[in-house]
């Protein structure tokens, strides 16, 4: 029995899923094992993003899979979550790619774009023929998007954008960027409502994306600094349905939902490695898995993994009913990433010194999860969201 089969056997998740959901999960698991795992250690070591997998992800239906029409699969929220879990069991970078493409860039166009914008971009993005990025975070802003400095001004019939963005996933390989900027035209909103979204083809003069070097996490993924210098766009580049920060936050919540599931995939991979090592390595004349302390560690990791998956499943069912709230998403994001990191750290102790090598995926997952913990809202941001929901007092 393989280690993931041991995990599946002890806790019968399949009994809570539909045949369609199980099929999506198996397809994603097969993709991760056949296309990601054989190359991910080398790619992580060499900081290499394997672009040829983009079209394969599109052909498999994973890009924008939760969206309807325009070539998207129209899968349910739980199916999408299970796909995120399996892809992140391969590597967080590939679940991140699916999230940036589908939950951020494609969702922004699907939620807020005109019909022309949807027809222009979504079918190509669903196949992977076009790549999108989501440019919200700024060097000084971080968790405070209301302090946005990127501005859009009218010049005749055109828009002109100036500003800087940072930690923008996929920007250097993207064909289109969803850029959020503060407009200075009262006709387009005042105060917080003045934040608007724009579709910026990355070939537009003045748009520049530079991959961030020196990363010790998410090394098989692409994150960039973005510079916008007098980027001139036609009037119809604006997303007509997005007004104010509720626009980008609506997309961020889609991505946060995927993380709730995805982080549990990384955790499961770490637990699998720990189980395998505990049964194959012998110390003092017996497998280390026969020691009570080791079994206690495995049991604790397993319990937190299954609690996290059950929470993700509950949130998925709420999402499918249209009843999922931002505070509930914060519960999931905070719990999943925090517990996934704890599982990774505990698994490393079972692996001993070899656990810091690429013979096992645990240190790679632990490093990646440090990034996942920060993006789409830090622990502290989600704690404050939940604190506000519990007290009705704003501590931001």
What's the CATH C level of the largest domain?
Answer: Mainly Alpha
Give the proportion of residues in helices.
40-55%
Strand content: 5-15%
How widely separated are the two ends? 49 Å
CATH topology of the largest domain: Butyryl-CoA Dehydrogenase, subunit A, domain 3
How would you sum up the major sheet? 7 strands, mixed
| Helix-strand pattern | HHHHHHEEEEEEEHEEHHHH
Q: Structural class, judged by helices and strands?
A: alpha+beta
Poorly predicted regions are none
C-alpha geometry: elongated
- Using DSSP, what is the number of strands? 9
Count the DSSP helices.
Answer: 11
- Known CATH architecture of the largest domain: Up-down Bundle
State the CATH superfamily name of the largest domain: Butyryl-CoA Dehydrogenase, subunit A, domain 3
Rg on CA atoms, Å: 21 Å
Enzyme class: oxidoreductase
GO molecular function, one term: glutaryl-CoA dehydrogenase activity
GO biological process, one term: fatty acid beta-oxidation using acyl-CoA dehydrogenase
EC number: 1.3.8.6
Textual characterization of the structure:
This protein is of the alpha+beta class. The chain has helices spanning 3-10, 19-46, 53-59, 77-90, 92-112, 115-127, 246-280, 292-320, 326-351, 362-374, 379-391, and strands at 132-135, 151-155, 158-169, 176-183, 195-201, 207-211, 223-233, 282-283, 286-287. The strands form two sheets. Strands 1, 2, 3, 4, 5, 6 and 7 form a seven-stranded mixed sheet that branches. The chain is elongated, with a radius of gyration of 21 Å. Helix 4 (77-90) packs across helix 7 and helix 7 (246-280) packs parallel to helix 9 (326-351). The chain folds into three domains: 3-127, Butyryl-Coa Dehydrogenase, subunit A, domain 1 (Orthogonal Bundle); 133-244, Butyryl-CoA Dehydrogenase, subunit A, domain 2, CATH 2.40.110.10; 247-391, Butyryl-CoA Dehydrogenase, subunit A, domain 3 (Up-down Bundle), CATH 1.20.140. The model has no long low-confidence stretch (mean pLDDT 95). The chain is built from eleven helices and nine strands. This is glutaryl-CoA dehydrogenase (ETF). Its cofactor is FAD. InterPro entries: Acyl-CoA_DH_CS, Acyl-CoA_Oxase/DH_mid-dom, Acyl-CoA_Oxase/DH_mid-dom_sf, AcylCo_DH-like_C, AcylCo_DH/oxidase_C, AcylCoA_DH/ox_N, AcylCoA_DH/ox_N_sf, AcylCoA_DH/oxidase_NM_dom_sf.
